């Protein structure tokens, strides 16, 4: 609790989530209002044409929810599509959302009302925030969970000791309740089916449709490539290296010390052309943006706040990551990809891997010198063979039609009485 000013010891009133905190003569009195919000949610009638969509707890227009929405809009159904965003004003100013989508502030009472009255929720992240606020799913409501990783190597939720220790039990209980509300969970592989069911505490139906956001790799994406080049002011003749490191639970940023200039020069020597870099940090590492991405190098562009990483992936000519699952999306393009991970042993101890990094098609570098060597030694034909073998071994079924399958399911749900 923040330090109180002298007069606030006599009397003060503050709100925190569903709690109302009253301070009287230095004595804190906490009133839990979640019961009120639960009744509020239960009493609101369901609107049978309403779908509420969320991307990463109020994030911008991207990931699986975006590509599901694009397919919904293409079919021109009479659905009231609501997106929950952190800042309605900011998103309207950016202009990425289609005008036919209603935007509602993520943490507002209106957002809770929209969820309580929707027939369908589509999300790629947990609804723990709203569960704490009192959200409950009613009979006649449905929830499609798309999740946000592909063949992810990082351990998830129930498989991570740091997420499930005695100090995290409140989070675990909310996460389990959240999973119990999911009617369907999207997957792209036999590997994900097994991991998701155990690690995400999921007992309902897995739909092995593929990930809607990955349909983009099977389409004609020249217009998207041109869009990305224009957005960042990059000449179409230049090639793009996309650097997409993951976050660290301990907030360490030393692991991001990639030698941009040396790597770009090596790419030029190996593949020809002039190269630039778009560097995009994980949402949880955004606060370190200015410390990690140089602001005075004309060859480096900050892509952290670009709303849709898939558009960056299909526009890139090469990708470098550490443990981010996006490299397994990028793999579908068959374009060169490398791992730059200076802290593998520590990360494996703190978070853990589902399979060794060495079993992936990507060459691993623990430092900048090794990364440069791996780029120079890159063998395109061998890499493509290893990608095909990896996809087959994981039972991955991506084919460019995941959005269609998902929206077929949505139409069937929305037609239920």
Molecular structure report:
With 417 residues, this protein is of the alpha/beta class. The protein folds into 3 domains: 6-32, no CATH class; 44-214 and 402-414, CDP-glycerol glycerophosphotransferase, N-terminal domain (Rossmann fold, 3-Layer(aba) Sandwich), CATH 3.40.50; 221-394, Rossmann fold (3-Layer(aba) Sandwich), CATH 3.40.50. 37% of the residues lie in helices and 19% in strands. The chain has helices spanning 34-43, 63-75, 88-94, 109-117, 128-133, 161-164, 169-181, 190-199, 222-232, 260-271, 289-292, 309-315, 326-330, 344-350, 368-376, 380-394, 402-414, and strands at 11-16, 19-24, 27-32, 47-54, 80-85, 102-105, 118-123, 142-145, 184-187, 205-208, 239-244, 275-279, 300-302, 318-321, 337-340, 363-365. Strands 6-5-4-7-8-9-10 form a 7-stranded parallel beta sheet, sandwiched between helices. Strands 13-12-11-14-15-16 form a 6-stranded parallel beta sheet, with helices on both faces. Helix 3 links the parallel strand 5 and strand 6 (102-105). Helix 2 packs across helix 17, helix 9 (222-232) packs across helix 12 (309-315) and helix 10 (260-271) packs parallel to helix 15.
């Amino acid at each position: 609790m923040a330090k109180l000013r002298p007069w606030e010891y006599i009397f003060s009133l503050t709100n925190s989530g569903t709690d109302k905190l009253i301070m009287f003569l230095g004595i804190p009195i906490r009133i839990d209002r979640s019961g009120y919000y639960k009744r509020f949610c239960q009493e609101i009638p369901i609107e049978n044409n309403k779908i509420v969509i969320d991307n990463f707890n109020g994030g911008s227009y991207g990931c699986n929810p975006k590509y599901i929405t694009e397919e919904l809009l293409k079919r021109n159904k009479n659905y009231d599509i609501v997106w929950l965003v952190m800042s309605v004003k900011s998103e309207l100013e950016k202009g990425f959302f289609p005008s036919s989508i209603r935007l509602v502030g993520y943490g507002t009472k209106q957002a809770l009302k929209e969820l309580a009255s929707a027939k369908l929720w589509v999300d790629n992240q947990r609804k723990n925030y709203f569960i704490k606020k009192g959200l409950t799913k009613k009979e006649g409501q449905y929830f499609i969970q798309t999740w946000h990783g592909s063949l992810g190597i990082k351990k998830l939720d129930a498989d991570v000791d740091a997420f499930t220790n005695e100090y995290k039990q409140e989070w675990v209980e909310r996460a389990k309740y959240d999973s119990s509300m999911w009617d369907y969970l999207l997957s792209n592989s036999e590997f994900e089916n097994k991991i998701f069911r155990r690690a995400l505490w999921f007992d309902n139906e897995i739909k092995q449709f593929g990930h809607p956001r990955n349909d983009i790799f099977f389409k004609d994406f020249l217009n998207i490539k041109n869009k990305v080049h224009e957005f960042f002011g990059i000449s179409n003749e230049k090639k793009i290296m996309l650097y997409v490191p993951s976050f660290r639970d301990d907030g360490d940023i030393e692991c991001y010390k990639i030698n941009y200039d040396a790597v770009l020069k090596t790419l030029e020597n190996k593949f020809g052309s002039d190269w630039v870099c778009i560097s995009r940090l994980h949402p949880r590492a955004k606060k370190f943006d200015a410390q990690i991405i140089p602001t005075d190098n004309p060859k480096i562009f900050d892509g952290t706040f670009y709303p849709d990483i898939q558009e960056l992936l299909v526009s890139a000519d090469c990708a470098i990551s550490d443990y981010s699952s996006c490299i397994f999306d990028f793999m579908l393009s068959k374009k060169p990809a490398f791992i730059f991970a200076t802290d593998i042993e520590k990360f494996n101890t703190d978070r853990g891997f589902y399979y060794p990094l060495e079993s992936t098609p990507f060459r691993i570098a623990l430092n900048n010198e090794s990364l440069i060597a791996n780029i120079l030694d890159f063998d395109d034909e061998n890499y493509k063979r290893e990608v095909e073998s990896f996809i087959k071994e994981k039972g991955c079924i991506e084919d460019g039609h995941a959005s269609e399958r998902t929206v077929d399911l949505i139409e069937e749900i929305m037609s239920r009485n």
